[in-house]
Amino acid sequence: xxxxxxxxxxxxxxxxxxxxxxxxxxxxxxxxxxxxxxxxxxxxxxxxxxxxxxxxxxxxxxxxxxxxxxxxxxxxxxxxxxxxxxxxxxxxxxxxxxxxxxxxxxxxxxxxxxxxxxxxxxxxxxxxxxxxxxxxxxxxxxxxxxxxxxxxxxxxxxxxxxxxxxxxxxxxxxxxxxxxxxxxxxxxxxxxxxxxxxxxxxxxxxxxxxxxxxxxxxxxxxxxxxxxxxxxxxxxxxxxxxxxxxxxxxxxxxxxxxxxxxxx
Amino acid sequence: xxxxxxxxxxxxxxxxxxxxxxxxxxxxxxxxxxxxxxxxxxxxxxxxxxxxxxxxxxxxxxxxxxxxxxxxxxxxxxxxxxxxxxxxxxxxxxxxxxxxxxxxxxxxxxxxxxxxxxxxxxxxxxxxxxxxxxxxxxxxxxxxxxxxxxxxxxxxxxxxxxxxxxxxxxxxxxxxxxxxxxxxxxxxxxxxxxxxxxxxxxxxxxxxxxxxxxxxxxxxxxxxxxxxxxxxxxxxxxxxxxxxxxxxxxxxxxxxxxxxxxxxxxxxxxxxxxxxxxxxxxxxxxxxxxxxxxxxxxxxxxxxxxxxxxxxxxxxxxxxxxxxxxxxxxxxxxxxxxxxxxxxxxxxxxxxxxxxxx
Amino acid sequence: xxxxxxxxxxxxxxxxxxxxxxxxxxxxxxxxxxxxxxxxxxxxxxxxxxxxxxxxxxxxxxxxxxxxxxxxxxxxxxxxxxxxxxxxxxxxxxxxxxxxxxxxxxxxxxxxxxxxxxxxxxxxxxxxxxxxxxxxxxxxxxxxxxxxxxxxxxxxxxxxxxxxxxxxxxxxxxxxxxxxxxxxxxxxxxxxxxxxxxxxxxxxxxxxxxxxxxxxxxxxxxxxxxxxxxxxxxxxxxxxxxxxxxxxxxxxxxxxxxxxxxxxxxxxxxxxxxxxxxxxxxxxxxxxxxxxxxxxxxxxxxxxxxxxxxxxxxxxxxxxxxxxxxxxxxxxxxxxxxxxxxxxxxxxxxxxxxxxxxxxxxxxxxxxxxxxxxxxxxxxxxxxxxxxxxxxxxxxxxxxxxxxxxxxxxxxxxxxxxxxxxxxxxxxxxxxxxxxxxxxxxxxxxxxxxxxxxxxxxxxxxxxxxxxxxxxxxxxxxxxxxxxxxxxxxxxxxxxxxxxxxxxxxxxxxxxxxxxxxxxxxxxxxxxxxxxxxx
Lengths: 264, 358, 535
Known about the structure:
Chain C: It catalyses: a quinol + 2 Fe(III)-[cytochrome c](out) = a quinone + 2 Fe(II)-[cytochrome c](out) + 2 H(+)(out). The structure holds three protein chains of three kinds. Chain A is mainly α.
């Protein structure tokens, strides 16, 4: 009797719901565990001549076609004199450079160089002229004031990147990328160098401490899933509306069909 | 079907209720097809498996009460989850668990209950279809006549039609009667203020320093590097006790520095910028969203709400989207200490257009 | 359960019987139960869509009542000191802070808040789908025209409820939404500036708006919604539900399971299912994460700032206006970039609202209709509906132009230009396609009735020819395919004074357009003469 009862229960749509719920919880947990990765900074001296020379070789082999043999720029790529090590670390470290093709803006791709090679390239470009350097670890550790960072983020960044860092559209096919996976170092470097069409946020505009707070906030958002459950891409009401029409109302219409179908 | 309405004889196949009424309303341009098929009447009743197989019926019953027990279990689980998943730790993850488990408990309670009741109705309750007779919504001619008589009697007894002066004065009074209520709505906004002067001025004055939003720290011209964008409020706004948001809603400014060679300024506004530094109202001239998506190479400003685009290099004229007017420019200069200051207020109202604006 | 039939005499009665008698003698409820309890309620899945709306509204009332116990509709500034770390110490209104407290400091509060918001989205969506069902099956025809108007008014009221609720937390998203409303109102000629001034209690944003919207949201609008729902349901009882054509079903009967018990069980169970689905969504999916948006501040804005879906069409209409539609004339500003969308939407709403009367005028049909049409059997109506849906969908999609651009790697300018074309040309294309599809489907129905359906059996004839055997429909299946009406266009006839008025001509040309290319149902004569020769 008992056995049979359980079997009938298992046939029920509830079983699917329960399975779904369990699946979702585990996925959520696994995701949270995985997203705790950090960027390791290789111990490389950016000022040593040997590093610069190694970087120069890499540069001439991989970058000179567009940026010129000594980074002076050509018709297809801008001059890199004075862009600083931060710019190289950001552009190459996120896979945007070397570019595969011209487009509205450089796309994120798998990174082409090792961490050490990126630092060598950065060292070489930094030697061409003074520019923003790679930030020290304590500014990108996420140990600042998240509330201050959140407010600064809303005022200076959210109009392009969305309040939850989900990204957004710009003109003519350009876009502000999502910041949901971006490392603290790269966020910092983007602020000081202004890659693509992003404005530059100098230290007089947003101080290094404030930048640290912004990174702290973004890390908070990256590390803490939404308390309400799945975020639906953090895209706001559009995603919510689509969800309720397709899945909410879709499921309910399926139920109405079941309710009015003749029982078998 | 409809044509049956008018060729009553063919209805016999349908059911016995057709004789109830015969409408003489106009069918409009509908064709009455004489040769139409007759309604074949109800198809034979098809029994359910639970009607034929007592085992299946027993099983359906078991399913129903199992679901009800499950529902009670879900309710209890939600109560337990309320206690088992506290969220007083300042930790978002705990809120997530609290929401999830209370929610799933409630879900189980509700879905099991609902599915159980429906299943009971579908599989266990007697499967019977009833046939109701419809009547014309307007009621029988007798009822209609009786209603008309009530009105006629009431009119005669009250003299509503006959006593025209009384009636018309009543209507007049009723028309005037809501006016005081309408006037009261003036109190929705302060009595001593008018909208147009408020909309025409902002907090900016000659000599007001440009300060960072939100900290209120004044900005030096030398701090503004090429390619940067500063979100600016008037100095002193951050310290306002009252009306801070109202002032900010008008006074918010975006400060950008372009290579002066790329800046194409109107002749009369050449003195409004300082060494490639320009300041524009951040409030869209369409419907007022903050326009702050600045692209440092194209010099385009984009409004995220309705996609109006403004060209900063060309005095913020509209290049795309529903806005018409360029963003108002704030004339700026530097003071003795090198801080950026406003030369005056905006020379036109900022933000969305309004009727009295010209 | 014992039955509650009142017994006469003094023999012992069960408790339920006694209670029923007690109640009835004080309420006369027996009359209602006798009248309504065994009403037949036609059964079809699409007849439950209105119930989805009704039940989600009940969920909204229940969850909303809970929220009122915690929400404080004040715009006084406080420094947040609740649990959510990235907002600690931030200046915000009491409304925002209390909404955060509901989310982070009251156990189950976030669950109720999310249920309330999800249920609101579902409420309006279900009304929309319900309206589509009514429209495409012609269930708005006499005697139900008023109920269409009442239902459509409910749709508008639901949108107003939704928008006022969306604005209450005073977060960045809703604040920018209100800012758009403010800009929209200011664009109205003559009165706009003053309406905005009065609505916000002075300058935008002021300190009044949340409290005022709260009064609307929890008192005035719900009272109206409840009143209109009551009226709507009274009319459903008065008219009895429509039914689809089927064997045995006529204009004079209503066929279905009785209200008590089967319909009551299905509807009652369905309420809990709707409640459960909303609860499931609320426990698994975030909605309106105000903690991300932060408090309203006129300076920031988020990428992807959109209204909830049901206001999207209005937001989209604003986005689609090309540059430059604003003029100064007579020393006053004429904001056609705002007026044109407002007027276009206004006309659209009025047309939808009045559609039953327009169609009745065109067809001149004054009979009652209780059998719902299959959409294909009213091709022009279906095509008009498809055009309307396309127009609405184009506006709606425009509200997400930025998100369409980023997610499909398009330029936002391209998306906007494409959607401008969809909104202007799309309805014509949709009209044409829908009408042709309907007629093709009608022809297929005729074909099946005349020649039967393909049985899948291939037979070789003595002459060597292979044919597939067609089987005739039984009379019940055939009835579903032939029981519809056909109309001919209105003829122009002189009126009593022997004149042909312009109105007459207009009506006749509309009628010609409405009934052109119609397909008549198969008649008995056709099947007898057409059938024999084929096989």
